[in-house]
Every structure is written in C-alpha cells, then in structure tokens.
Amino acid sequence: MSSSPSPLQSGEGIPEFNAITPKQIKRDIPLILKQVDDAFSAHETNLRSILDSGGSPDWITVVEPLWEICERLRWSWGVVSHLNGVCHSKELRAAHAEQQPKVVRLSNRLGQSQILYLAFSRLLDSSAQILSPTQSRILHSELLSMRHRGVALGSHDKAKFNEVSERLAFLSNQFSNHVLDATQQWTLKLTQAEEVAGLPQRALRILAAAAQDSGEDQATATDGPWLLGLDMPRYLPFLTYADNRKLRETIYKARVGLASSGDHDNRALIEEILSLRHQQAIRLGYAHWADMSLASKMADDVDAVEALLEELRSAAFPAAELELNDLRALAQRHEALEAGELAQWDLPYWSEKLRKERFDLDQERLRSWFPLPQVLNGLFGLCNRLFGVTVESADGDAPVWHDDVRYFHVKQNSTPIASFYLDPYSRPTSKRGGAWMDECLGRRIKADGTYALPVAYLICNQTPPVGETPSLMSFEEVETLFHEFGHGLQHMLTKVDEPKAAGINNIEWDAVELPSQFMENWCLDRATLMGMARHWQTGESLPEEEFHKLRRNRTFNSGLGTLRQVHLALSDLRLHSRWTPELGLTPNQIQRDIARTTTVIPPIPEDQFLCAFSHVFAGGYSAGYYSYKWAEVLSADAFAAFEDAGLDDEKQVQYTGALFRDTVLGLGGSCSPAEIFEAFRGRPASTEALIRHSGLVEPGMK
User: Which CATH fold would you assign to the domain 17-152?
Assistant: First the structure.
C-alpha cells in the first residue's frame, strides 16, 4: 500500500502546516528542486526548438508554462520560509539553512537562462504577437530581473555571481538568526517594587507572565518577580513608563547594542554583506548597489531619493528641536535630569508625560477601548464601507500553524473573492519580531476557466491576551494591524488575471507601501475610530473628548518621528551608494556622520543599531528603506482625495473608495505606479498632504 504524499510535495492549495516537519523539509525540498529543474530544462528545450526553427514564440508557449514551474518552487519554499518565521525552532532553522543555498542556486539557474532571455526578448519585440500592456510590462520586468540575476554575464563572472548570491543569502539568514537569538538571550529579572514603579498593570502582567514562562511559578503582577526582555511588548512599555531611569538606560543600551557582541555579533556580517552587494552591482554594470536597486523602483535615481528626504528633513528638523526643548523643559520642571540633559532613554518616558500633560491623553488606559475583536469589527466595517467587501470568520475552514491563528473569507456581493490568515500575537521564543504580509496563494485562472482565489498571511506581534483579559491593543498596534491589512487588500482585491502582475506582484518596491500606509489614515477617521472603540468590559463608546485627544496627538513629536525615518532611510541609501571597505570608515561611522543632521541628540557610544536593522540586512529593503517615506507621500495624497471629497459625505466616500479599489488595489502590478496613482488622483502625487498631516507646515502656509 503506497503512503500518502508529503504535504510539502503537493505544490498547490492551502498548506498542511502542522504536518510539515524539519525532517520532511530536508527530504522533500531536494526532490522538489530536482522536479522544478527537470521541468525547466524541458521548457528550455521546447523554446530552443521554436527559436531554432524560426518560429515566433507566443505568451502561452513562453510565459504560462514558466509561471507553473516557478510557482511550484515559490509555493514549496514559501511554506518553509513562512514556518521559519512564525514557528521557529532550532531544527527548523537548521533545515531551512541547509536547503537555502540549493534554492538560491536553482533560482539563479532559472534567472540566467539564455534561451529564456532570448525568448522573452523575441516575444517583446515581435510584431506578430499582440501583447496587452500588462503582458508587455511583465516582460520588461522579467528581462530586467534576469539581467539583475546575471544572465548577460560571461561564464567566469556568472560563476562568481552565483557563488556570491548564495553567500549573501546565507549571510542574511545568519543576520536574522543572530537578531532573534540575541533578543531571546537578553533578560533581566526584577524583584523590587521600585524597579517597576510607574508601569501599568497590563505591562506588569506581561513581565510576570514572562517570569512564569521562565520557571518562576509564583510570579504575579503585584509581587513579581518580573522578567524584562527586548521584545517590543516588554521593552517598549518599560521604556515609556518606568520611573527608574537607570533601568531605562540599561534596557535602552541593550536594545541599541543588540546583536553587536559575542556569538551574535553582526558587525562583520554587515561589512561583508555591503561589500558583496557592491561587487554584485559592479559586475552587472552599475555604479553601486543603490544604483541597481533603484533601476527597478519608482524613484529615478539616488539624487531623486535624497531630494525627497532632504525636503522632509528640512521641514522636520526645526520642529524636532522645538519638541526636544519641550521635553527638556518638562523634565527640568520635575527636577529629573541628574546630569542636566535628556538622553535617548528619556525621550519615550518624558514624551508620554508631556502627552498626558498637553492632551490629558493616557495611551495605556485607552487600550481598554481597543480589544482585538472590536478592532477587527471596525476594520472589516471600514472595508465594507470603502470597498464594498465583507469579511467573515472562517476558523476551522483551513489548517493553521498555531492556536492563535485565525482564518477569514473575503466576499463581494456574497461571492468569495479571497481569504486570509491572521496571526496577531507576539511569541518571542518562536516568532520573529515585526509585522508583515505575505502571499500564501495568488489569484490566477485555472485550466477549467475558474479562478484560484488569493490567500494572504497577515502577521503581527501585538500584546497577547493575559488570563481572562483579551488582547487590548495600543493605538500604535491598531495602526499596525490596519497597515498590514492594507497590503492584504492589494493582494486580495486584485482584478489582474496575469498572476505575475496580480496583487502585490510586479509592483515597484517604493510604491508597495501605498495601500498599507493609506489604511493607517483611517484609524483617526471619526466614523471609523468611534465605530470600533468600545470598552472591552462595559461596551461603552470611547468618550468624545478622548477621540479629540487622539486627533490632536496625531502630530505630537512628528518632527522627531519624521527625522527618525529620514535618518534610517539615508543610512541605508548611503551605505549602499558610498560605503566600501577602502573608505576607511565603518558602516557605524557612516551612520553617525548622517546623524549630525538627522538627529537632535547624538547616538550614544553603545549605539550599534545597524546590527539589528533587519529590514535592510535580512529583508528586502536594501537601498529601499526610503520606500516608506516615498510611499507615505503617495498614501497621504491618496487619503487627501477623501478629505477633498468630504469625509462626512458618505456618497462621495463610497465613490472615492470604489475608485481607489478599482485603481490602486485592483490594478496591482499591471501598470506603473505613477499611471495608477494618476488614474485615481487625476494628477501626480505631491508632498503637500504628508507635510500637512504631519503638522510640519510652516506658520502662514496652508
């Protein structure tokens, strides 16, 4: 009797997550890679036969079989990578690390196929084939991607290119593992009440729960002990509320020095990653990695990005100086500055004090009005209002990887159009930090003419439930959920039939944050906020005065916040455009030089933030971190369309929402982002709305 096929071998549909083991990964991925390689070789043979005979390649012959082959690889390795991020274990890490070079090797093989490159070129140039604009755009993108994978290199350079590609994948994975391990390794046990003075009860419960998980059976929120850590649900509340300045200093220094010493030191990895990226760019004919990165983005070049960042920096810097003076004055009034000057570990603490004083806004107390189920109801109601879709719980309809995970269906006119997973809570021991959206399944037309519907992963790391208390969200966590759902909407509401341009596929990286940041704007829309903010125990609506406090709080310390993003974006950009080993400066020194004009308090000696800058060194944001600000210009201007139409005019809101759905969300990667934005807005984007929303408009300006 034959055994049932491995869940990793199916290559399609919803994965059987809990049935996939590290042992299966080690056994099955090599088999899958062999199958993909064989299928691709057969495809190359067919294309060569067509081209050698003088035949004219067409879309069905060239592109559609290729998508099937690549989807097999994406699906299988995508499941493994997903599990490595949300169900981390030493065994899974080892299996992932062992197979990753083989995956990179095959990806390079596909991306360096001369016959495929020739077929793409012939198809694009052929007068005999009528291509849609979407198909032409896909081919241009594929050809550029193949050039970036080294298809035009000679045999010697190609071999070196492939070797470096594998090395870069290994280094990025190692960088991420070091950050995760260093985060898990650092803890501080607190036993005295004065050590946790100022912390709200919710934060104390989380610290006590962490102590219990570490073996302290008698730990309680009231009496301790409490276990401090560097994951955000423990770190951020402590830095924001703890009265003990010395301990705030301790945890801040640990956080900015994360993964910069001992077995988890990422400094050498950063230099090697930057060096190898620079070498790869030179091999491909670019001046540097940033030049290569921007070739496939919306921004024209490094100068264009620097110009945007300078526009924002110059608007934010004077505001940040005033904001710092306000914090300094408050601390001095309380006679709290031992050395007479604010330090970085004081900023969140005194910002929260000033927020309460200026707006009487207690963000910690507001959590009671944002239980996760109520926030989800508000988010889903907004999507119905704007985009005409309904979201329904479908728990039990699909396999999950953890008991925390929920599953939902999305419908339009009662017809299913998509589904998504939501994994909301922080799990520091097994789930990497941050929040992200990823593709589980994409939209496509199946052989029988029906649609395979898109399925998204939506991953957050918000405060988990404690005992009988549900997950009570900070307003920042609410914004994060809306942000990731914006990505999900673009994936799920796509109207594009070509899978290579459907959803988030084929969208320039600096435009991909448009829908996510657009959705954040609705968190402060009155109808949206007041519709979802209800006390988890009493059901009462958020008091009107609290709503107005949140609105006034919108621009609080926006100068400091904008400068922070500009600093990170410039650090990333200049490291990838100016740094080389021959420069005689470390990457950290480059970052510190940038800080002279992008910070109002210089970095402390212990600051090695680059060592935990996973977006850039372990994610897809290298020479692209500016994308957050670039796309924020687009998203603010997009939301301004609703403001112009009138947020209280329900008919206009629904009309504008439908237009946004049919352009930005629906068209995905089928057109250039600039074309899509102009189709929605009627003109190119302007920075005016972002600067206005941020409260950085100079006096006398409108």
Answer: Glutathione S-transferase Yfyf (Class Pi); Chain A, domain 2 (1.20.1050)
